[in-house]
From TrEMBL, chains A, B:
Family indicated by similarity: Belongs to the D-glutamate cyclase family.
Organism: Nocardiopsis lambiniae
Name recorded for this polypeptide: Putative hydro-lyase RM479_19755
Keyword Lyase recorded: yes
EC assignment: 4.2.1.-
SUPFAM superfamilies xref list: PSTPO5379-like
NCBIfam families in the record: PRK05463.1
Keyword Lyase: yes
């Protein structure tokens, strides 16, 4: 099984069968998405939160209450991601590979753009993506930047970090800025302290990655931000993906490219 | 009083004092916005409708329930537009210049991008805008294109039309495509029948405008679409602007320009 040769459907079948792995590098050329499913009564507040924070929360699709697939995702949202996190009153209570028995009729699922989507164009532009080379999960951090609140939802901006060679930073900006629906251009380049990140070697989510000689850490807004908002805001119930373990959609990366 | 020399604040003061006029050409350089205010219990469905139909319904701002101003609009949403339309169960029941006594604590106001915003850049690019020259309201039409429904909301796409000289159509596309937050590039160029518009001289909203020799009708998605959705979907209560009688915001046009 070579992740780079899988179709979205085949990748989802493997995850459904129990393969538990970060999805970076899987089914290249197809967009990946973050999941956050919330009860209908919290859905307006969250949709407004996403609307007000489009860099971390670019909405790709929203289901009707109770639906288990989406127009961009032909699979089953309850089984076809590699892993899930379940929150009750803001507490992370479980991590699982199947949430079929927890899916409620009143759950509205939000699919939110993921920066894994622009990694294929980055690689095609010759910009190295270290965590794919290393076969690890991307490093993600909670920052000291607060999102704009909406109704009951508030919380910090979460970012993903990729070390980029100094002479490729401009290319990384140029390429990713063409994909605003999957977080777009970086929110910060360089000193992690500017985002309140004390230690790059201790990410809040995912795996650490070394910043090599001649490289600079580059930070993009991250679709784990909704889960940080769930932690901060404590809605009664929520289901998210396990960070880095995304929904592989049926939509081509190029669909989300702007000129 | 020269509309082209007013600040947003001064324009709003005139409207508050009773001036009832279409706002095209007012306070040039500042973005204008469509208004639709709906009860909180319908707000999620509408926000999702807007999310699913970003060409006609690009959201600039959403208020908390009961608020009467917005981050993009320093005035009073109940008095500072030149005219309003009031809907009860989908029926247009009143047109007024002040809705203070009708504003409810549970109303959520959505401010939606308006194509008047890109008319200044059009004029600066030498593309004529006929209805400004004529001092009339822009011509708007319901089309045979259905929006993507969401919850209780469905309805047709509404468009605005500007006649453009054949050799300036490319410029009109190029300039307006830089402003996706205020409807962006045209949805249709040429034959009105392609949108199901039988007679250009009979717009559904606003004033007719002649398509001259050597000109072609160019159609942009229009922020009256939410009011057509109110008509089609019959929420219990809604307040919109009178078509063409917009909220003049405090935000510069250039804020909404993308590269």
């Amino acid at each position: 099984m070579n992740p780079s040769e899988l179709t979205p459907e085949r990748a989802r079948a493997l995850f459904r069968a129990g393969l538990e792995t970060p999805t970076s590098g899987f089914a290249p050329g197809y967009a990946q998405a973050n999941l956050i499913a919330l009860p209908r009564e919290a859905a307006f507040d969250f949709l407004l939160f996403a609307q007000r924070n489009p860099k971390p929360c670019p909405i790709l699709d929203v289901t009707e209450p109770g639906e288990v697939s989406a127009s961009v995702f032909g699979g089953d949202l309850r089984t076809d991601l590699p892993a899930y996190r379940v929150y009750r009153h803001g507490e992370l209570t479980e991590e699982r590979t199947d949430v079929t028995d927890l899916w409620r009729d009143d759950l509205v699922a939000f699919l939110i753009g993921c920066s894994f989507t622009f990694e294929t164009p980055l690689l095609e532009a010759g910009v190295p993506v270290r965590h794919i080379e290393a076969g690890t999960n991307v490093a993600m951090y909670r920052t000291n930047r607060e999102c704009r609140p909406a109704g009951r939802f508030r919380g910090p901006l979460v970012v993903s970090m990729r070390p980029i060679p100094a002479d490729r930073v401009a290319d990384a900006v140029r390429v990713t800025s063409r994909y605003p629906a999957v977080h777009g251009a970086p929110v910060h380049v360089g000193d992690p302290a500017g985002l309140g990140i004390a230690d790059l070697s201790r990410p809040d989510y995912g795996d650490p990655v070394e910043v090599g000689e001649g490289e600079i850490p580059v930070f993009w807004a991250c679709g784990v931000t909704p889960q940080a908002a769930v932690t901060a805001s404590a809605p009664e119930f929520a289901i998210g993906h396990a960070p880095g373990h995304m929904a592989v959609t049926d939509v081509r990366d190029s669909f989300y490219q702007v000129p």
